[in-house]
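The following record pairs a protein chain with its ligand, 2-acetamido-2-deoxy-beta-D-glucopyranose.
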Amino acid sequence: MHLLTLLTLPTLLTLLTFTTALPSPHPPKPLPLLIWHGLGDRYDADGLRTVGTLANKVHPGTYIYYIRVDDDGSADRSASFFGNVSAQVAKVCEDIKLDPQLAGSVDDGREGGGGIRVDALGFSQGGQFLRGLVERCEGLSVRSLMTFGSQHNGISEFQVCGSYDFVCKGAVALVKGNAWTEYVQGKVVPAQYYRTVNESTGAASEGYLEGSGFLADVNNERVLKDASYVDKIAALERFVMWVFEEDKTVIPKESGWFAEVNGTDGVVTGLRERAMYKEDWLGLKRLDEKGGLVFKSTPGGHMDLNEEILAEAFGEYFGPETSEKSARLMPQIGLVGDAPVFRDQARLVDESKIYL
Ligand SMILES: *[C@@H]1O[C@H](CO)[C@@H](O)[C@H](O)[C@H]1NC(C)=O
Ligand SMILES: *[C@@H]1O[C@H](CO)[C@@H](O)[C@H](O)[C@H]1NC(C)=O
Ligand SMILES: *[C@@H]1O[C@H](CO)[C@@H](O)[C@H](O)[C@H]1NC(C)=O
């Protein structure tokens, strides 16, 4: 008793985490974690591995699956620029079912359930691709979906490429004036989450609704809506959306929260004010009503991450399925250095100067 009064609050929290973990001879296993990287990155990059290592530090024993479109890291990076996103998502869905460690995470037939139960973490474009996976992959059941700086409502502009970035220039040249052609929509990755609106009505443009190879479908914006997408999103326990306050790479940055931004005067219409929410095209309203939709922001530019933010987020939303109380008590873990890897990642992005 007396001893306790001497302890500072953070120390006390650490002790509680520890003692609640001790009595169980078989501590509940953390859910596996899928991580999908962004544009210009690769699944075997050091920066991404550091994130996985951190997730494991916060919840020891977490099996991490680094999503890739190709086992060769360099081909995986190319596929972040060029390829058909729907085909990529379909391939990832098949691949994860073949992974013996993920297949072992069979869930117990909960709503929206299937064979594989996981948490999911997406960086930038990897965030909306993961969401597509949640919606389309039969047999995959996701507890927490967390995205950082993603483009859930698309991008409205393609930024100027760096002078020597020929990959970026190639992609932009393909898109220029041809954004809605089948060729571009089947080949240029960022074009598949490009989104334009009718300037006077603010509604999604016809070109987008007809031509979009990915986003218009996974956002259920077309007249015919896929009811299973709605159920899959509503069945999430948490959908945590992070926006970088100073993000200059994603235009508009509020896309990370499904907000609509008027390109002329910059007025932001929040998700809850939009028809897609009010009419619940995607299950986001149902999810919100059960407290599962989380809007977060963090200072800094695109992908300006640090371990404190990540560790806190992982502590709160990932880990064992059953341990709500211990998840609330953030483990007091030490920082693993200065995270130069994240800065590398940010630099890569800057060089490519398209949208992640
Ligand atoms: C992209 O791939 C999907 C799935 O394989 C296919 O149905 C679709 O037609 C492709 N899109 C384009 C524009 O080639
Ligand atoms: C925008 O919407 C208005 C009203 O429906 C329509 O008259 C106009 O043609 C649309 N503009 C474009 C560029 O599609
Ligand atoms: C966007 O802003 C401009 C300038 O304020 C305005 O004229 C236009 O009506 C707005 N568009 C929508 C869809 O609200």
